[in-house]
Each structure stands twice: as C-alpha cells, then as structure tokens.
Inverse folding.
C-alpha cells in the first residue's frame, strides 16, 4: 500500500503522513489472524499490561492498549502495582506473566518510578513475549534485521515510511533522542535500512546545525514544539514521535505550523505516529500468540 503522492509534494504544501489509515489496515489483518488462532486452537490471544504507579497519562495509555486488544478480538489483563514497588517485586510479577501460558504478550509501561531498575524489569519479559520490543534480545534482532519484535514506536514509524514510499537508502537521518524505547531502536532500524544515521541527545552541541543536514528528522525528545523551521533543510521529511500534554491538547516535539511549509512530508500530532505505535503492539501480540500456539502467523 503506497500513500505517497509526489504531485502533492511542494515546499509550501507538504504531504501530511497520516498514521490512522495505515494503523487501521494493520489492525484489520491482525483481527483476521486472531480469528484464525481462535478457530484453530480455541485459545484467545492475550496481552498483559503492567503499570507501576499512578501516573494519569500512563494509566490512560495502558487502558487504551487494553481496550484496543479487546476491540480486535484479543483478551487483555491489566496489572497495576503501587509506586512504592521494588525492582524485585516488579520483576517477580513480570516473570510470573512470562511463565503463564495464557499470556502471549507483555507490555510494561515506561517510564517506571525512579527506584525501579527498568532494564531488569524489561529483561524479565523474555524474547518470546516481548511484543513491545524492549528487551536486549529484541534490540539485537532489530539491529541485525533478524526475525523478532520491533520496538513498537520505531517499528510503527518504519512501517509508516514504507507505506508512503519514503526513500531511506543513503539518506542522512537525524534522530533527536536516544531513549531505549524510541531513539536508539529508531536509529538502528534506519541504519538497517541503509540510512546514514546521526543520534542527538541532551549533550549534543549545536543541535540545529546537525538537524539542518538531515534529509529525514525523527523527533523523540519529549519537549513540546522543540524543533523549529530554521533547523530544517528545505524539503526534509519530518517524523514527530513526541506526545506532550498541553493546555490546548496534546502536541508533538515539532513546531508543526512553523515547520510544515519547509518540509516535503511531515507527521501531525495527534494522528501521526501515535496510532502506529498502538497498531504495532496489537499486531505483534497476535503474531506472538500465533508463534507460541503453533499457528501460521501470515
Ligand atoms: P525520554 O526517555 O525522556 O528520552 C528523551 C530523549 O530526548 C533523551 O535521549 C534525551 O537526551 C533527549 N533530550 C532531552 N532534552 C534534549 C535537548 N534539549 N536536546 C536534545 N535532546 C534532548 O523520552 P521517550 O520515552 O523517548 O519519549 C520521547 C517523546 O516521544 C515523548 O514526547 C513521548 O511522550 C513520546 N512518545 C510517543 C509515543 C507514541 O506512541 N507516539 C511512544 C513513546 C513515546 P539524554 O539521553 O541525553 O537525556
């Protein structure tokens, strides 16, 4: 499916990359897979979500993920642990879910409270149920283009770029942000697609001058309207992974109104990357269930 229309690409009217139609197509295929699994095995695929603490935004994200599972024929289990939980307690809970045959995918909501060793918790998921792509194993398979689960947001961005026929090979991609769930795996997936990749972070010196060299910019910073038009090369493709609550609603890491006229393509917030993250998570849960239950995933 290609949604790219070159005729729409000018520097004053960028192509707006919409995640929703691509996400819907993924979810339609996923639903068919779920039905096939149920028919063949009598087992309903199940995603377990783990929320530590009571951050209202995280609570909302987890609820949305659970509801979407159910909407597409899967089960979901929600585990909520107090914000005073220790690493050992959370690891024990996640390990129990990893050993439970009725659970096929595990999502641990990030970020966790400061006292928690997030890496230890992620590793307790294990490769087979890591449908959010956060373990070392998944990072390795992503990096080497081997079968495995992609980190949900970066994988969603790659699928979105593919749907819009965005040329990655040989392009200079600048990823702003190096978190384990977003910036780092994003950089690895772009590298695996033969981009020349620069990763920027909070200690990067003269960030605008580096972003100005980019054919493709991925903003994954967590600061509302951080990227400005005078940081961009004319005709850049700009992917905004940011999602920041604001007084007038949620906004991205890119100052959309300022940047759009300079871009060839740009993702909006909301309606860009967000729906892709959710669709990839649900899709990977159904694929994980198919593999664990010995059903053809395709
Ligand atoms: P994070 O863990 O806080 O990481 C933010 C990254 O940005 C860090 O690597 C940090 O650098 C870098 N950074 C911070 N200030 C900077 C600055 N002034 N200049 C350059 N780099 C800077 O955040 P995250 O979890 O990756 O999330 C990033 C954004 O994506 C957030 O808005 C989040 O809500 C959004 N998000 C969206 C989705 C979705 O589905 N759409 C999913 C996940 C996250 P250091 O490493 O040096 O600290």
């Amino acid at each position: 499916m290609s949604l790219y229309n070159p005729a729409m690409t000018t520097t004053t009217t960028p192509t707006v990359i919409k995640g929703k139609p691509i996400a819907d197509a993924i979810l339609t295929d996923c639903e068919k897979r779920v039905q096939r699994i149920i028919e063949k095995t009598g087992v309903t695929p199940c995603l377990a979500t783990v929320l530590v603490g009571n951050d209202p935004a995280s609570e909302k994200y987890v609820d949305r993920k659970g509801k979407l599972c159910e909407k597409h024929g899967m089960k979901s289990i929600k585990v909520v642990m107090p914000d005073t939980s220790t690493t050992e307690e959370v690891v024990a809970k996640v390990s129990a879910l990893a050993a439970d045959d009725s659970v096929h995918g595990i999502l641990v909501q990030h970020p966790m409270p400061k006292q928690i060793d997030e890496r230890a918790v992620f590793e307790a998921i294990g490769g087979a149920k890591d449908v959010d792509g956060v373990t070392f194993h998944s990072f390795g398979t992503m990096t080497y283009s081997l079968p495995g689960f992609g980190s949900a947001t970066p994988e969603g961005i790659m699928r979105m770029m593919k749907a819009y026929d965005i040329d990655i090979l040989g392009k200079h991609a600048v990823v702003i942000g190096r978190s384990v769930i977003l910036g780092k795996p994003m950089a690895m997936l772009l590298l695996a697609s033969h981009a020349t990749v620069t990763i920027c972070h909070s200690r990067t010196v003269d960030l605008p001058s580096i972003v100005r060299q980019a054919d493709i910019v991925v903003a994954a910073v967590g600061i509302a309207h951080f990227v400005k038009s005078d940081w961009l090369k004319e005709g850049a493709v700009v992917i905004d992974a940011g999602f920041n609550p604001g007084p007038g609603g949620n906004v991205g890491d890119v100052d959309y109104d300022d940047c759009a006229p300079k871009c060839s393509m740009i993702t909006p917030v909301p309606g860009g990357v967000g729906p892709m993250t959710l669709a990839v998570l649900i899709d990977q849960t159904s694929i994980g269930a198919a593999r664990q239950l010995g059903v053809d995933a395709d």
